[in-house]
Specification:
The longest helix has 42 residues, at 129-170. The protein is an alpha+beta fold. The protein has two domains: 3-126, 2-Layer Sandwich (Alpha-Beta Plaits), CATH 3.30.70.1730; 127-171. α4 (88-99) packs across α5 (117-124). The radius of gyration is 26 Å and the shape is elongated. β4 and β5 (113-115) form a beta hairpin. It contains six helices and five strands. It has a five-stranded antiparallel beta sheet with strand order 2-3-1-4-5, with helices on both faces.
Protein backbone atom coordinates (compact mmCIF):
# COMPACT_ATOMS: atom_id res chain seq x y z
CA UNK A 1 0.00 0.00 0.00
CA UNK A 2 1.56 3.29 -1.06
CA UNK A 3 1.30 6.60 0.79
CA UNK A 4 -1.67 7.88 -1.24
CA UNK A 5 -3.68 4.74 -0.51
CA UNK A 6 -2.85 4.98 3.19
CA UNK A 7 -3.99 8.63 3.27
CA UNK A 8 -7.24 7.65 1.57
CA UNK A 9 -7.84 4.88 4.15
CA UNK A 10 -7.10 7.30 7.00
CA UNK A 11 -9.60 9.81 5.55
CA UNK A 12 -12.29 7.12 5.16
CA UNK A 13 -11.74 5.89 8.71
CA UNK A 14 -11.82 9.47 10.00
CA UNK A 15 -15.24 9.99 8.39
CA UNK A 16 -16.45 6.73 9.91
CA UNK A 17 -15.30 7.75 13.39
CA UNK A 18 -16.92 11.20 13.08
CA UNK A 19 -20.28 10.17 11.65
CA UNK A 20 -20.96 6.92 13.54
CA UNK A 21 -23.33 6.82 16.48
CA UNK A 22 -21.48 3.78 17.83
CA UNK A 23 -18.24 1.98 16.99
CA UNK A 24 -17.58 -1.52 18.35
CA UNK A 25 -14.06 -2.99 18.34
CA UNK A 26 -13.61 -6.77 18.34
CA UNK A 27 -10.96 -9.41 17.73
CA UNK A 28 -11.74 -11.79 14.90
CA UNK A 29 -8.83 -14.22 15.10
CA UNK A 30 -9.77 -17.56 13.59
CA UNK A 31 -12.91 -16.48 11.74
CA UNK A 32 -13.33 -18.07 8.34
CA UNK A 33 -14.12 -16.03 5.24
CA UNK A 34 -17.67 -17.43 5.29
CA UNK A 35 -18.16 -16.36 8.92
CA UNK A 36 -16.85 -12.87 8.14
CA UNK A 37 -19.22 -12.64 5.16
CA UNK A 38 -22.06 -13.70 7.44
CA UNK A 39 -21.15 -10.90 9.87
CA UNK A 40 -21.07 -8.37 7.02
CA UNK A 41 -24.47 -9.56 5.73
CA UNK A 42 -26.07 -9.29 9.19
CA UNK A 43 -24.57 -5.84 9.63
CA UNK A 44 -25.89 -4.72 6.24
CA UNK A 45 -29.41 -5.97 7.13
CA UNK A 46 -29.34 -3.97 10.37
CA UNK A 47 -28.06 -0.77 8.73
CA UNK A 48 -24.53 -1.00 10.06
CA UNK A 49 -21.15 -1.79 8.50
CA UNK A 50 -18.04 -3.84 9.20
CA UNK A 51 -14.53 -2.68 8.45
CA UNK A 52 -11.15 -4.33 8.91
CA UNK A 53 -8.30 -1.81 8.89
CA UNK A 54 -4.69 -1.64 9.93
CA UNK A 55 -4.54 -0.63 13.57
CA UNK A 56 -1.81 1.93 12.92
CA UNK A 57 -3.92 3.71 10.28
CA UNK A 58 -7.02 3.55 12.47
CA UNK A 59 -5.10 5.15 15.36
CA UNK A 60 -3.99 7.98 13.08
CA UNK A 61 -7.59 8.46 11.92
CA UNK A 62 -8.79 8.58 15.55
CA UNK A 63 -6.70 11.63 16.42
CA UNK A 64 -8.95 14.54 17.46
CA UNK A 65 -12.13 12.50 16.91
CA UNK A 66 -14.90 12.14 19.51
CA UNK A 67 -14.26 8.40 19.91
CA UNK A 68 -10.46 8.67 20.27
CA UNK A 69 -10.74 6.63 23.48
CA UNK A 70 -10.93 3.37 21.50
CA UNK A 71 -7.33 3.74 20.28
CA UNK A 72 -6.15 1.59 23.21
CA UNK A 73 -8.35 -1.30 21.98
CA UNK A 74 -6.67 -1.40 18.58
CA UNK A 75 -4.14 -4.20 18.86
CA UNK A 76 -4.06 -7.59 17.22
CA UNK A 77 -6.56 -8.62 14.57
CA UNK A 78 -9.35 -6.09 15.10
CA UNK A 79 -12.55 -5.43 13.22
CA UNK A 80 -14.74 -2.34 13.53
CA UNK A 81 -18.53 -2.58 13.48
CA UNK A 82 -20.18 0.82 13.19
CA UNK A 83 -23.49 2.51 12.43
CA UNK A 84 -25.16 5.90 12.52
CA UNK A 85 -27.91 4.38 14.66
CA UNK A 86 -26.44 4.34 18.18
CA UNK A 87 -27.67 0.78 18.77
CA UNK A 88 -27.54 -1.18 15.48
CA UNK A 89 -23.81 -1.98 15.39
CA UNK A 90 -23.76 -3.04 19.04
CA UNK A 91 -26.73 -5.39 18.47
CA UNK A 92 -25.10 -6.96 15.41
CA UNK A 93 -21.78 -7.45 17.22
CA UNK A 94 -23.44 -8.92 20.34
CA UNK A 95 -25.61 -11.31 18.35
CA UNK A 96 -22.65 -12.47 16.27
CA UNK A 97 -20.46 -12.90 19.38
CA UNK A 98 -23.13 -15.17 20.94
CA UNK A 99 -23.08 -17.39 17.84
CA UNK A 100 -19.33 -17.38 17.30
CA UNK A 101 -16.80 -17.68 20.14
CA UNK A 102 -13.91 -16.60 17.86
CA UNK A 103 -15.45 -13.12 17.67
CA UNK A 104 -14.46 -11.37 20.90
CA UNK A 105 -15.83 -7.89 21.60
CA UNK A 106 -13.25 -5.65 23.28
CA UNK A 107 -15.27 -2.46 23.71
CA UNK A 108 -16.18 0.58 21.71
CA UNK A 109 -17.35 4.15 21.76
CA UNK A 110 -20.66 5.95 21.59
CA UNK A 111 -19.79 9.50 20.64
CA UNK A 112 -17.30 10.70 23.23
CA UNK A 113 -18.25 7.96 25.70
CA UNK A 114 -15.92 4.97 25.86
CA UNK A 115 -17.63 1.60 26.26
CA UNK A 116 -16.12 -1.48 27.83
CA UNK A 117 -17.38 -4.98 27.07
CA UNK A 118 -20.37 -4.67 29.40
CA UNK A 119 -21.12 -1.20 28.03
CA UNK A 120 -21.44 -2.59 24.50
CA UNK A 121 -23.73 -5.31 25.84
CA UNK A 122 -25.90 -2.71 27.62
CA UNK A 123 -26.17 -0.59 24.46
CA UNK A 124 -27.14 -3.67 22.43
CA UNK A 125 -30.13 -4.26 24.72
CA UNK A 126 -31.52 -0.77 24.13
CA UNK A 127 -34.30 -0.35 21.54
CA UNK A 128 -33.10 0.84 18.15
CA UNK A 129 -34.10 4.16 16.63
CA UNK A 130 -36.77 2.49 14.48
CA UNK A 131 -38.18 0.58 17.47
CA UNK A 132 -38.40 3.81 19.48
CA UNK A 133 -40.19 5.59 16.64
CA UNK A 134 -42.69 2.71 16.42
CA UNK A 135 -43.28 2.82 20.19
CA UNK A 136 -43.85 6.60 20.12
CA UNK A 137 -46.21 6.30 17.16
CA UNK A 138 -48.13 3.59 19.02
CA UNK A 139 -48.40 5.80 22.09
CA UNK A 140 -49.61 8.74 20.02
CA UNK A 141 -52.21 6.58 18.23
CA UNK A 142 -53.55 4.86 21.36
CA UNK A 143 -55.45 7.87 22.80
CA UNK A 144 -57.17 8.50 19.46
CA UNK A 145 -58.35 4.89 19.20
CA UNK A 146 -59.54 5.00 22.84
CA UNK A 147 -61.54 8.16 22.11
CA UNK A 148 -63.06 6.63 18.98
CA UNK A 149 -64.00 3.53 20.97
CA UNK A 150 -65.56 5.61 23.75
CA UNK A 151 -67.55 7.71 21.29
CA UNK A 152 -68.79 4.65 19.41
CA UNK A 153 -69.62 2.64 22.55
CA UNK A 154 -72.78 4.54 23.64
CA UNK A 155 -74.33 4.20 20.19
CA UNK A 156 -73.73 0.46 20.13
CA UNK A 157 -75.10 0.17 23.68
CA UNK A 158 -78.28 2.05 22.70
CA UNK A 159 -78.70 -0.13 19.62
CA UNK A 160 -78.30 -3.24 21.77
CA UNK A 161 -80.90 -1.99 24.28
CA UNK A 162 -83.35 -1.08 21.51
CA UNK A 163 -82.89 -4.53 19.96
CA UNK A 164 -83.61 -6.18 23.32
CA UNK A 165 -86.76 -4.04 23.85
CA UNK A 166 -87.95 -4.87 20.34
CA UNK A 167 -87.42 -8.59 20.94
CA UNK A 168 -89.45 -8.41 24.22
CA UNK A 169 -92.25 -6.46 22.54
CA UNK A 170 -92.47 -9.00 19.71
CA UNK A 171 -92.71 -11.89 22.16
Amino acid sequence: MDRAQKEKVVDELGQIFESSGVVVVAHYTGLTVAEMQSLRAKAREAGSSVRVAKNRLAKIALEDKPCASIADLLSGMTVLTYSEDPVAAAKVAEDFAKENKKFEILGGAMGENALDRSGVEAVSKMPSRDELIAQIAGMLGAPASNIAGAIGAPASNIASILSTIEDKAAA
